Input
Amino acid sequence: MISIELILLIIALVLSISVVSSKLASRAGVPVLLMFIVIGMLLGSEGPGGLQFDNPWLTQAIGVTALVAILFSGGLDTQWSDVHRVWREVSILSTFSVLASAILVGLCAHVVLGITPLEGILLGSIVASTDAAAVFTILRGQSVRLIPRVKSLIEVESGSNDPMAVFLTIGMIQLITAQVSHPLGLIPLFVQQLVLGVLFGYVGGNLILLVVNRIRLDYDGLYPVLTIALVGVTFGTTAVLGGSGFLAVYLAGIIMRESDFIHKRSLIQFHGGLAWLMQIVMFLTLGLQVFPSELLAVAPQGLVIAVFLMVIARPLSVIPPLLALRVPMRVAGYIAWVGMRGAVPTILATFPLLAGIGVAEQIFNVVFFIVLVSVLLQGSTVAPVARWLRLQDLRPVAPPELLPELLDRGKFQDNMFEVRVTPNCAILGRQVIDLELPPETLLMLISRGDRIVVPRGSTVIEPNDRVLVLTPPHHREQVVRLLTE
Output
């Protein structure tokens, strides 16, 4: 038996290597997720690590859990103004374009792989959604900022087209396994997924806000635990009742972003870090699940389908509707090219394995190969194409907000503190201007009962006032004596 200490050491080393590799990869223009997958493959049974792993159920479970965290964090990072700016385009891209891409790729797979049309469209449905997280990792690593409208379009599309891909994948599996007898029978399923996803996303987001703001926990560290649990409740309830849990958690995140809640900044940062951790774990697991020797067997067919997806299927399903909505050609072309495949397709590829479909292994390997080709070809050209099409935001970068920067760097921690004025203090009844405060000392706020008082020179000190003081550390003891003795 391997000791738990050794297991923890290996996990810590793998995570550390993954994080460091992501930094190097982003600077070199290589998609981060590719590094995670490669590390997982090296650890697998056919790599130097030699770790035996072949568990589609566990892979899918880890993937679904990771996607919930990633989509909720994506919602927290999405402003409603971004959604409102591109809602017409996104409503088409996340529905019609996903369906069109699935059908086109499906017909190509039918011809190239020799599988049935339904099995081909199943493969097309699996690779129909995009991964903007990888795109923006590369753009940030190479210091390329997109103009706001293009940035919003890519981000919101990536968060909203996943539910359609999930629905199509599940629907095609039901058709292949004869759970549904006719394609029109999928329409009620789609309506149910969409309506319940939106409904429970709205209710779940507002419920999380209500609970977080009202519960008043004794320990601040429990708020991240609470939000994780409530996000899980939102996803689980929606999915169990037949709705799109992924759409629900993404919408819940957007609703929270637009509202005020306790520890908002720190919770957004926490869920961002959690999303990164889950993304690392997910791609490492996918790397373990795949066998490189099987990828080589499907390489020729996979390359044909991948090129068809990038050069024909994606542009045909994206560019015409965007042009109809008067989106400039260079923007429409860029949106078509940056439709990188990543997290969602690799997780959806495990669904046919668990459904017992005959060509499931072949579909999984082809999808995995398509993802690798997509991140290599598209991922390495995302930034250069943005520069070539002049889609960069050339405006000066606004400096970070002063207060959050000071708080994050801890500059106030030693200089700011709270003092409660004692009932028998000598300064009671005196005005602030008459207090003999040390140099560089400021009374910032006074909490008096249910009121917050901003001190002025004429403000009178009263018993039990709670005073927020800003002063250098070497004056702290003198200020405390002044306000309490």
The two ends are 64 Å apart (CA to CA). The mean pLDDT is 83. The CA atoms of residues 433 and 457 lie 4 Å apart. The chain has 21 helices and four strands.
